[in-house]
Design brief:
CATH architecture: 3-Layer(aba) Sandwich
Catalytic activity: D-gluconate + ATP = 6-phospho-D-gluconate + ADP + H(+)
Structural class: alpha/beta
Keywords: ATP-binding, Gluconate utilization, Kinase, Nucleotide-binding, Transferase
Shape: globular
Protein name: Gluconokinase
CATH superfamily: P-loop containing nucleotide triphosphate hydrolases
Strand order of the largest sheet: 2-3-1-4-5
Number of helices: 7
InterPro entries: P-loop_NTPase, Shikimate/glucono_kinase, Therm_gnt_kin
Distance between the termini: 9 Å
Radius of gyration: 15 Å
GO cellular component, one term: cytoplasm
Length: about 170
């Protein structure tokens, strides 16, 4: 079973933790999409300036290319990428058959509390509002699995893996 997943959501939703567990389960390559940002984006975010669509475009091209590479090698892959807007998700879909988006969502209060405990990440808590403002909730996209993050990490991972397996089996 080849699995190609984008783990999406606002900062602090647990994308990296959940993404690594999903990648481990499926024997997939794991890539943190933050590592694919151009230097200018990282500098901008580190100084507390939210990215705009123009900033995100080269990053999304890089993420799209990673999935093309997985497809070309017939390899499973999991990439963390916020993919907040439908047009961003559409950019990732372009030329990449069979992508599954796992959208991790929760209340702003829950995410804010998680971010307050986080260290060593360039996303600042005050940028959270810009992420929630940009988020276009993917409730009508067939390739998106929406998972509420109010449960434990173990529950979230189990639910995500179960739904991914169903979706891949259905699409084969």
């Amino acid at each position: 079973m080849i699995v190609k997943c984008v783990i999406m959501g606002v900062c602090g939703s647990g994308k990296t933790t959940i993404g690594k567990a999903i990648a481990d389960h499926f024997g997939a390559c794991f890539i943190d999409g933050d590592d694919l940002h151009p230097r200018a984006n990282i500098i901008k975010m580190r100084t507390g300036i939210p990215l705009n669509d123009e900033d995100r475009a080269p990053w999304l091209v890089r993420v799209n290319d990673v999935f093309f590479s997985f497809e070309n090698r017939q390899q499973s892959g999991v990439v963390v990428c916020s993919a907040l807007k439908r047009k961003y998700r559409d950019m990732l879909r372009e030329g990449n058959h069979g992508l599954i988006f796992v959208h991790l969502f929760g209340s702003k209060e829950l995410i804010k509390e998680r971010l307050s405990r986080r260290q060593g990440h360039f996303m600042k808590e005050d940028m959270l509002n810009s992420q929630f403002d940009a988020l276009e909730f993917p409730d009508s996209e067939n390739d998106v699995i929406n998972i509420d993050i109010s449960g434990s990490p173990k529950e979230i991972i189990s639910q995500a893996i179960s739904q991914i397996e169903k979706k891949v089996a259905h699409d084969e």
